[in-house]
Amino acid sequence: MTPATHSTLFPQGTGSSPYPATPSGADAVLEGLDPEQREVATALHGPVCVLAGAGTGKTRAITHRIAYGVHAGILQPSTVLAVTFTNRAAGEMRGRLRQLGAHGVQARTFHSAALRQLQYFWPKAVGGSMPRLVDRKIQLVADASAACRIRLDRGELRDVTAEIEWSKVTQTVPADYPLAIVKAGREAPRDPAEIAQLYSAYEALKRDRAVIDFEDVLLLTVAVLQDRHDIAEQVRSQYQHFVVDEYQDVSPLQQRLLELWLGERDNLCVVGDASQTIYSFTGATPDHLLDFRTRHPGATVVKLVRDYRSTPQVVHLANGLLAQARGRAADHRLELISQRDAGPEPVYSEYGDEPAEAEGAARRIRDLIDAGVPASEIAILFRTNSQSETFEQALADAGVPYQLRGAERFFERPEVRKAGMALRGAARFGGNDSLLDDVVDLPSQVRAVLSGEGWTSEPPAGSGAVRERWESLAALVALAHGFAAARTGATLSDFVAELDERANAQHAPTVQGVTLASLHSAKGLEWDVVFLVGVAEGMVPITYAKTAEQIEEERRLLYVGVTRARERLHVSWALARSPGGRPSRRPSRFLDGLRPGSTAAAVRSAATASGGIERGRASGGPTALRRAQRTPARCRVCGRTLTDAGEMKLMRCEDCPSDMDEGLYERLRTWRQDQAVRSGQPAFCVFTDKTLIAIAEAAPEDDAELARIPGVGVRKLNRYGADVLAICAGREVAGDDGDG
């Protein structure tokens, strides 16, 4: 089994190291990869699309892919550009590539890569100095509103700023904004003509002040590469192999930039999961991922569905959420298969009001910490940041340390910067520092230096700024222990160099506190225990989600929240906002049929993808499927050996003709839906689509024939066998209303 995909920076009592040994060669890079991950790692030529479900080791697969290519001499590190969407993700990728010995590979965000190129080529393409880049555009928007004599409060300023950002990444100019939002089904936060006016004034102000914003970095880079073929060719000669992570989040502007980087070549590997598309409000769209095979008919498609993160119980809930989904992304959902041992069932809790919900979560968390669960391995996830305060107060009252996700970056915190300067000074002039007179080993030296900055062996009582400062220093102490254990003989200077490298890579150590985060900011993270709070109608889905696609994005957002949990999952909601309020809320519709005692919603049958590899053919011929061997079986039509689980259920190749009785299949589907409603579970938990097809094709006449069909185990045979055989024989099922 492949190791779990997460790695703790400071393992508790395991003796394992956060700094694994560098692989000795190309073959060593492949050790520990599962068959699908290995396929990703070795598919180094032509277009490759990796459809990777949550927790299936996508970062592991693509970093090992790059490292394998480097160690095998197929890829030159300086010619590889790996792009993703956050500094944290890019930093993690750089760190993993360093550990794998793939030094010199560029791993950056789209904006970072574009800015680097723009700065380099500006004198040649435009001349003079590049305009100053503004970090925050909200003040410019405020100045634009003043110029237009339109009054905006702080919330309205944020909304208009978001609309300007969306317009730019979708390549919409001010004059086209009103029509563009209608076409996109987007609801403007105020009069569209007014926003277009503000957008135009904002652009004029930027020109007058000779500044550019982050979206301009992409737009200007695209313009340079389009207009200057000599510069485009220079970039293409530098970068010859591209990897794009989180491809479902690519905007039209980023896709255009990627196409210009590529030119006529096809050395591209994209990785994504349409079921984790949760940023469409920023212009992101999964269409580029879903249309990849259309644009690249010869592409190799690898599907990762082995979930190494979460227990079967968590995975079952995640699959159940998507089983009820609709739309194009749902048609390409990946059904995860947990590779972990069984864990506890998700816990569902209903409270009278939000403070009671927060107090209940804080009590459970206090008990978990007392039982030995590290606070840093627990998270509370909510739909909106405004929900945070109630839970912050409850945790503080319970004496539970916490950290807010999305606050200052670790290495930008004042206490961390100050501690870094103290450590750097001690490394240079330690011989004259009395604090270090009686200490020899690295961890003791770090503790001694940081004691002068406020670190103590025991944390301060309570919460707030003092506790947060101590947590930051304690994280540095813990990092020193891990670094010293991995690097025998490491000095204080070595440790300072490691901190500098981590700061540059945005690779922060873990602060020992419960994480409070919105569902959006939790993307890409994971914890042992997750509390999903406020899972009620009006919050999940959010009130302003009106269209079918907006509702589906809310469902995907909850799916992302569920799949953050490794072992334990707590789902809760409150019937009222405040004590004494009218208990008018109800649990989220997304939990219907999944939580105990609820009735399943009508489930539309959607295509699901099992893990494996699909090899495209440029000639447009039939796709050849190759799967990992499981149990010997042969197609009853053509005699080919079957290895795919879905084909083995059917006992035939997907492409071989079916002799299914369509009428029988429809009767079985109707019966299955009735069973699902009665039992309060998704329809696929009764029988999967493939199993139903296999039954309809075989039309079994007795228990023995039915039992031979894969997917019909002893338990289901005992529970459903009599009904299924009656339907196959054309008889009425006992208790049926006769409609089937």
Structure, explained:
- This protein is α/β, with parallel strands linked by helices and 740 residues long.
- Helices cover 44% and strands 11% of the residues.
- The chain has an eight-stranded mixed β-sheet with strand order 3-2-6-7-1-8-19-20, with helices on both faces. A six-stranded parallel β-sheet has the order 12-17-16-13-15-14, covered by helices on one side. Strands 4-5 form a two-stranded parallel sheet.
- Strand 6, helix 12 (252-262) and strand 7 (268-272) form a beta-alpha-beta unit.
- Helix 10 (214-227) packs parallel to helix 12 (252-262).
- It is globular and about 85 Å long.
- The chain starts with 25 loop residues before the first helix and ends in a 12-residue tail after the last helix.
Features:
single chain; 740 residues; alpha/beta; 8-stranded mixed beta sheet; 6-stranded parallel beta sheet; 28 helices; globular; disordered N terminus; disordered C terminus
Compute the number of helices: 28
* Spatial separation of the terminal alpha carbons: 44 Å
Work out the strand percent: 5-15%
Q: Which ranges are low-confidence, i.e. pLDDT below 50, for 5 or more consecutive residues?
A: 1-18, 602-607, 618-632, 736-740
For the CA atoms, what is the radius of gyration? 28 Å
Write the layout of secondary structure elements.
Blueprint: H1 26-30, H2 35-42, E1 48-52, H3 58-71, E2 80-84, H4 87-99, E3 106-109, H5 110-125, E4 132-133, H6 138-147, H7 154-169, H8 177-184, H9 192-209, E5 211-212, H10 214-227, H11 229-238, E6 241-244, H12 252-262, E7 268-272, H13 287-290, H14 292-295, E8 300-304, E9 306-307, H15 312-323, H16 328-331, E10 333-334, E11 337-338, E12 347-353, H17 354-370, E13 378-382, H18 388-397, E14 402-404, H19 414-429, H20 442-451, H21 465-486, H22 492-505, E15 514-518, E16 527-532, H23 548-562, E17 565-576, E18 608-609, E19 612-615, E20 624-626, H24 645-650, H25 662-679, H26 689-698, H27 703-707, H28 714-728
Parallel strand pairs: 1-7, 1-8, 2-3, 2-6, 4-5, 6-7, 9-11, 10-18, 12-17, 13-15, 13-16, 14-15, 16-17
Antiparallel strand pairs: 8-19, 19-20
Helix pairs in contact: 2-3, 5-10, 6-9, 10-11, 10-12, 15-23, 17-18, 19-22, 20-21, 25-26
